[in-house]
Amino acid sequence: MKIGVLGAGRMTEALASGWVHAGHDVLVGGRTPGKTSDMAKRIGARAGTLREAAEFGDAVLVAVLLAGLDETLRAAGAPEGTLAGKAVIDCGNAVDVTDYSQVRYEGGSSMAEEIARLSPGAHVVKAFNQAHADVWRMRPPVFGGRPLAVPIAGADEGKPAARTLITDLGAEPLDAGDLTQARHLEAMAIIVIRLLSSGAAPLSVFAWSASEKR
Ligand SMILES: NC(=O)c1ccc[n+]([C@@H]2O[C@H](COP(=O)([O-])OP(=O)(O)OC[C@H]3O[C@@H](n4cnc5c(N)ncnc54)[C@H](OP(=O)(O)O)[C@@H]3O)[C@@H](O)[C@H]2O)c1
Fold it and tell me: Is 3 helix (H, G, I), strand (E, B) or coil?
């Protein structure tokens, strides 16, 4: 698959290196050219502008800090339709780390819904936001002999690509519903981030994640 990535940070390096390893053609688009090309070279991907990444991918990962979301989507041409008809995967978290409150948009909507609002025609799916970048660097992410379960929420049209990107990392997709459910995935991640920040081990808290299937 042709995968475009918006953002050249830790999540991009962790996820996109796995997709390159799985044989996908990845173009990393970033706002800082030197940093973007260095990272793309390190993981065996192409480098380009945000707009080039949006236009390149059949699937496009959005991996930027919340503060840069609007600027990134505009630079990528999303409001003009560059992401229309594509699976757009959002791994971001809308959290204010000064008090661990959830950042919500008009009507209480999520970061993923904001991406959909700014990207007409895009098939937005929330995924990958529940685990730390270190987990996404694992090849494969297996805990207690079981592959990591990755909840996804979003547009049905974007889910086949999201499932492929998850299984190609050695993890297991779990359908958590439509894009409104991204609000809950973003809220859940805040608990994980807070526990990590306080030095706790989320696996010991979320014991259900290691329970047997019914
Ligand atoms: N790190 C994790 O463990 C983790 C886990 C799950 C989800 N997430 C979420 O995934 C997303 C990406 O996280 P990350 O750790 O990859 O972040 P990161 O390394 O700090 O940065 C990612 C990208 O965001 C861009 N950026 C930052 N501030 C910006 C601004 N004000 N305007 C425009 N662009 C800006 C950076 O641009 P430059 O390249 O120019 O620096 C970089 O390319 C975030 O929403 C985060 O909450 C992170």
Answer: strand
In the three-class reduction of DSSP (H, G, I as helix; E, B as strand; rest coil), residue 177 is classed as coil
Nearest-CA residue for ligand 1 atom 30 is: 68
- Regions of the chain where pLDDT drops below 50: 208-214
State whether the beta carbon of 68 lies less than 6 angstroms from ligand 1: yes
What confidence tens digit (pLDDT) does each residue in 52-98 have?
999 999 999 999 999 999 999 999 999 999 999 999 999 999 999 89
pLDDT at 202 (0 to 100): 65
Tokens of 94: 């809308």
8 Å CB contact between 117 and 69: no
For the stretch 115-124, pLDDT in tens is 999 999 999 9
CB distance 95 to 131 below 8 Å: no
pLDDT at position 203, please?
65
C-alpha–C-alpha distance, residues 55 and 140, integer Å: 29
Using the mean position of ligand 1's atoms as its centre, give its distance from the Cα of residue 188 in Å: 19
Q: How far is the CA of 8 from the centre of ligand 1 (A)?
A: 7
Instruction: Give the count of beta carbons closer than 10 Å to the beta carbon of residue 86.
Output: 23
Residue ranges and CATH numbers for the domains of the chain are 2-210 (3.40.50.720)
> CA 9, CA 17: separation in Å to the nearest integer?
12
Contact 158, 186 (CB under 8 A): no
Give the list of residues 6+ apart from residue 86 with CB closer than 8 angstroms, or none: 57, 58, 59, 60, 122, 123, 158
